[in-house]
Amino acid sequence: MEVHQRREELDRRMLLLLHVDDRVCDALMELEAAKQKKQTLTQLNQSLDMSAREVKLRNVSVSIMQNQVKELEEEENKLKLQCEQVKKELDNDQEV
Asked: Which residues form a coiled coil (predicted)?
């Protein structure tokens, strides 16, 4: 009888160990999935950071170009005024 009880106890313990092993395996699989998700999110974050930096650089470049255009337009207006003045002076000289 005692052998039978010990065998049942051993079987019960084996089933318990199998259940624990399954839970450990499930936990390890969940851990691996979480690690992969973290890695993916980290890569996405790095990509977004790079994109944000590129956008900032583009904005700076656009701003610089807009300033250059403004300066060139101002210079163009000055040159137009100078041309008009020179034309007026030439016209005045021709009249004299």
From this structure: 62-96
